Amino acid sequence: MSSAHHDKPAAKFPLVRFAAFADLSIEEAEALEKLGSTPETYRRGEVLRREGDSDTGLYLLHKGWAATHRTLPSGGRQYFKIHCAGDLMGAPNLPSQQAVETLATLTDATISAVSADCLSALFVEYPRLAVLFFLTAQVERTYLMDHITALGRCNAEQRIAGFLVHVAEKANLATPGLGPAFELPLTQKQIGDVLGLTPVHVNRVLRSYDKSGHLRRYRKWIELLRAEDLRRISGLAPHPVVKNANWLPPV
Amino acid sequence: MSSAHHDKPAAKFPLVRFAAFADLSIEEAEALEKLGSTPETYRRGEVLRREGDSDTGLYLLHKGWAATHRTLPSGGRQYFKIHCAGDLMGAPNLPSQQAVETLATLTDATISAVSADCLSALFVEYPRLAVLFFLTAQVERTYLMDHITALGRCNAEQRIAGFLVHVAEKANLATPGLGPAFELPLTQKQIGDVLGLTPVHVNRVLRSYDKSGHLRRYRKWIELLRAEDLRRISGLAPHPVVKNANWLPPV
DNA sequence: CGTAAGATTGACAAGCGTCAAATACAGTGG
DNA sequence: CCACTGTATTTGACGCTTGTCAATCTTACG
Predict the structure, then answer these.
(1) Residues in A 32-71 with any Cβ partner in B closer than 8 A
(2) Which of A134, A140, A142 sits opposite B133 (nearest CB)?
(3) Residue B13's pLDDT is what?
(4) Alpha-carbon separation of residue B105 from A239, B83, B89 (angstroms)
(5) Most buried in the list A153, A194, B132, B203, measured by CB within 10 Å?
(6) What pTM, to 2 d.p., does this model score?
(7) Where residue B113 sits, what CATH number does that domain have?
(8) pLDDT averages per 10-residue partition of chain B, 251 residues
(9) How far apart are CA A169 and CA B170, in angstroms?
């Protein structure tokens, strides 16, 4: 629990996420902090579980990046979500007999498991947190709908613009004060597997954005020089949430 | 509440959905039945709320079909989900200041509103139901991931095959014992707006399936003659859920 | 410094979109 | 029962975005 000095904000991350919906009481905050087991470290590219596995539990990402995807019979791959520090991962598998998505790290990462029992107990003891978990799931649905809109009705330029803006926001969530430059933990092939494009075409569009001055690239780093332009191109609207909604259960 | 005889199964539908996750106690079942307000009737094509509206409440679909979509600046449209009798609609909007999707009927429909207060109270009084609501949200995420996979990594034939199989299942949920023929409440343009295709191309593929004997069409009715073939073509896997998981809170 | 993974580039192909017109169909009013 | 009208479906010609294939170049890393 009190992991002293080597990793100060790790256990606190989930609070940040829920605090977007409501100011938490001391008890609620403590209950949340106790949710995860002892964090373990994983190396880049490690698979936590594969689609079809019987493990359908939850994980909490403390440090690093991870992602969920599915592999098709044809060999193609589709990424659903990129996770950064503070994300609760794997919830969609909870109701299922077998995992519905593969969960793997994108970078070296620190991750703890969250047991369904603990979550269940939390729902019983802290109904207000239960509502917040429910709200979190709805926000995730909204992100997936953004993703669907991008894949169904946007061209490659728009998809890539939206993706970069989205990841930049996530990076700033995980590392407050980071600014417009961030390390993108994905290869161009993987970006294509998020956006339903081939690596070749991802490359074409990225270089065109580079040439037109919308962004700069160095190694795996990307700096968005005209983030607002990119956001406008993407057509994505932000979805501000209501904090401390008056219908929430009392503390 | 006791709406006598004119619409017998309406209020019972939500139970069917939750019963997939756990056997409900009498009290839980009653609490669920009291969740919706008095149902109202809507006509085909009516908009319950538009993206951006300040109404972010929930609705329960008792009879008919409805769907959620978003309209893009370009005028294009993307459907996210087709709702049939028994579906709880609009939950993704709950955390947001403004609706993140437009909700409209596809056919004449009977719909009741579910207030956030009632839902909140339910979470407090019936933690087990709270968990079931959470699980429902996760299943919805899984469907959205199926949708993303279809749009990102499947061609038009596969998408349409998967869509038809999916709607056939929904139709059989809403009308048990219906069989392989059902009335599809969407125009070909709307099917395209679900699957990220143009109406022209939807037509090409549908006629080709018709010609090859995979399905038959009459008016708005579709009969899947080789449903299993279509499912195989789509590449979609079913996601069986765990019933009465041992980690659920006690009744 | 060798090797594998990733990024870049070019030529070409194909799936699906666009445009436009014809046909069928559903609903309405006479 | 029929003409009328708007909407949905069907059809064909053509083009563009994106995919495919393959080669080269760069970077990461042991």
Answers:
(1) 56, 70
(2) A134
(3) 62
(4) 24, 9, 11
(5) A194
(6) 0.93
(7) 2.60.120.10
(8) 39 74 93 89 93 95 95 94 94 97 95 95 96 97 98 97 95 86 95 98 97 93 95 94 96 87
(9) 37
Residues B92, B23 within the same domain: yes
pLDDT band for A12, please (50, 70, 90 cuts): low
Pick from A9, A162, A3, A161: nearest CA to A84: A9
H helices present in chain B, as ranges? 13-18, 26-33, 116-125, 127-153, 156-174, 188-195, 199-211, 227-234
C-alpha separations of A57 from A93, A207, A243 in Å: 7, 40, 29
Provide the strand spans (E) within A115-234: 181-183, 215-218, 221-224
Number of separate domains in chain B? 2
Contact B186/B199 with Cβ under 8 angstroms?
no
Residues recorded for chain A: 251
Could you give the CA distance from residue A217 to residue A187 in angstroms, rounded to a whole number?
Answer: 13
Identify the CA nearest to A150 among candidates A67, A241, A231: A231
**Domain range holding A95?**
16-141
| pLDDT tier for residue A84 given thresholds of 50, 70 and 90 | very high
Q: How many CB atoms lie within 10 A of CB A173?
A: 16
Pairing between β-strand A221-224 and β-strand A181-183 as defined by DSSP bridges? antiparallel
Task: Give the mean pLDDT of chain B.
Answer: 92
Of B94, B141, B245, the CB nearest to A135: B94
A217 lies in some domain: yes
Q: Could you report the per-residue pLDDT of A160-174, keeping only the tens digit for each?
A: 999 999 999 999 988
A78 located within any domain: yes
- Report whether pLDDT(A250) > 70: yes
Q: In this predicted structure, what is the pLDDT of residue B173? A: 85
Residues A130 and A27 in one domain: yes
The whole-number pLDDT of residue B3 equals: 38
Mutate to test the interface with B, among A51, A98, A133, A144 (most CBs of B within 10 A): A144
Residue A69 identity (one-letter amino acid): H
Question: Can you give the pLDDT at residue B65?
Answer: 95
Count Cα neighbours of A83 within 13 Å in the Cβ-side half-sphere: 31
pLDDT at residue A2, rounded to an integer:
38
- How many residue contacts between A and B have a Cβ separation below 8 Å? 184
Same domain, yes or no: A136 and A158: no
